[in-house]
Amino acid sequence: MTDVPPVPPPASANISPHWATLPAGTVLWRVHKQKWPVTTFNPTKADPWFGGNRFDATSDDEYPYLYAAPEQQTALLETLVRGIPFDDKGRRLIRRATVGDVWLTALQPGRDLSLVALRTHTDLAAVCQDEWLVQADPPSYPQTRHWAHWLRGQAPLADGFIWPSRRDLGRDSLILFGDRCAAPPLTEVPGSAIRLDDADGARWLNKCLAEYRISIRLPPRSA
């Protein structure tokens, strides 16, 4: 993996980010707890130095956020399959505890959203970065968050970022900022919710992720 950039974001660079438009009505998929509706933005601030995700808010830049993906498999891989190695039979097994009270649901924006594009080397160069920003390992997330907060300040009209999924190569991941794209509100796609912690959910997961050699055991039968 590319080393952490040796310098913080430039103090006086004149940048022109590249943009991607997410049309109104685009179907996005999100993995979430049942107690949090799919359209609810996460208000949790990550510790500035430990834990958290790539582009989370911190006390340095407080904003609600929502991670999603245009493909079901991408959303699942980005949230449920982090750091799971192949076993000696060439399989990856999702632990049942990972899916407790977890759902996969589709949502749609009510208007076109403007996202800073971080998909290509030229996209990244436009914001004075390289692939490190979107491919760095979790120990570097405090630094990627710092760069994300700087980029939010440089692109005040950005509703979010879009970049290549690290865990589902060739497909996109994205983050939406609740302080910028909550109005008009996101809406849940009726009938799209898939419960992942019951037997039907396990069967669906096994079918959906079979080509990735990923599976989950069915829950034990009730007595």
Give a concise summary.
With 223 residues, this protein is an alpha+beta fold.
Q: Indicate the percent of residues in helices.
A: 10-25%
**Poorly predicted segments:** none
Order of helices and strands: EEEHEEEHHHEEHEEHE
Mean pLDDT: 94
- What spatial form do the alpha-carbon principal axes imply? globular
| Spatial separation of the terminal alpha carbons | 49 Å
* Count of alpha/pi helices: 6
Q: How many β-strand runs?
A: 11
Q: In order across it, which strands form the biggest sheet? A: 1-6-7-8-3
Class computed from helices, strands and strand pairing: alpha+beta
Summed up, the domain count is 1
Percentage of residues in strands: 15-25%
Main beta sheet: 5 strands, mixed
Rg computed from alpha carbons, rounded to a whole number of angstroms? 18 Å
Can you give keywords for this protein?
about 20% strand, four-stranded antiparallel β-sheet, alpha+beta, about 220 residues, 6 helices, about 20% helix
Structural description of this entry:
The chain has 223 residues and is an alpha+beta fold. It has one domain. It has six helices and eleven strands. Strands 1-6-7-8-3 form a five-stranded mixed sheet. Strand 7 and strand 8 form a beta hairpin.
